[in-house]
Amino acid sequence: MSIAVITGASSGLGAIFADQLAQRGHSLVLAGRDETRLKAVAHRINQNAELVVGDLGTDEGIDDLIAHLGDRDVDVLVNNAGFGTYGPFAEVDARREHELVAVNVDALVRLTHAVLPGMLARGRGGILNVASTIAFQPGPYQATYGASKAFVLSLSQALWAETRGTGVTVTALCPGPTRTGFVDALGEDVSHTAIYRRLAAPEPVVAAGLRALDRGKAVVVSGWRNRFTSTFARLAPGWLSARVAGRMLRPANA
Ligand SMILES: NC(=O)c1ccc[n+]([C@@H]2O[C@H](COP(=O)([O-])OP(=O)(O)OC[C@H]3O[C@@H](n4cnc5c(N)ncnc54)[C@H](OP(=O)(O)O)[C@@H]3O)[C@@H](O)[C@H]2O)c1
């Protein structure tokens, strides 16, 4: 059976990726820190999924997941684990930002390096990297998070171009604000902001990502509203889209 690996599979989009990839008949490797929630996901999808418990913010956590995969044939890798921070850059917890880069960027790069050569040798496979609509413009008050997702978008597009014609494809999924634990984990109430006031349902986001991977698309932005705003962000000069995004993300007390 073909193997699909999902990071951050214990909740939110990752748990739904587990549902939808199990329905497609994949055998799953589910990675996350929270073993109880990973078990609950495996139980719900009624599959003997392999669970890899570890912190992808640490070298040890990434090494363990790569060692678990060994030289097995991975058909699909969903680099989904990630989190955000919120607040003026000078005031957010520097250690948490460092951890953010480790999970959102370093782990994704290392896992991609671990599976891509095997996919290319076999001439088939797909890597779906979960970026964000914040990747299309600077994100004041989520500066490091936005930069991490811009990295994911850029890397994915570059790898999409490198792998064309090989049977392997790389896609960046760019969700807008979505109803998952992500928003609560920002650590501050963001419901007053124009960005996080309205949250999309997560199931169609995941379906859009997998459809785009099937079609070999480089990038997919889920939802017409997000497609509209990200087009503006891409066309506008950086200083303008940064200022607009800053207004839409401004903390209540700033
Ligand atoms: N929801 C949104 O508005 C939104 C919008 C755009 C992009 N995204 C992106 O979507 C992806 C999934 O997030 P979500 O919305 O589904 O949020 P979520 O419900 O909070 O899920 C995040 C997942 O990442 C895992 N994770 C976080 N830190 C980790 C670490 N140090 N090591 C290993 N796993 C870790 C968590 O697993 P454990 O807790 O078990 O470790 C959890 O399963 C993220 O990359 C996020 O940036 C979300």
TrEMBL record:
Name of protein: Short-chain dehydrogenase
InterPro entries: NAD(P)-bd_dom_sf, SDR_fam, VLCFA-Steroid_DH
Source taxon at top rank: Bacteria
Matching Pfam families: adh_short
Key word Ribosomal protein present: no
Family designation: Belongs to the short-chain dehydrogenases/reductases (SDR) family.
GO molecular function ontology, one term from the record: oxidoreductase activity
Record's keyword terms, sorted: Oxidoreductase
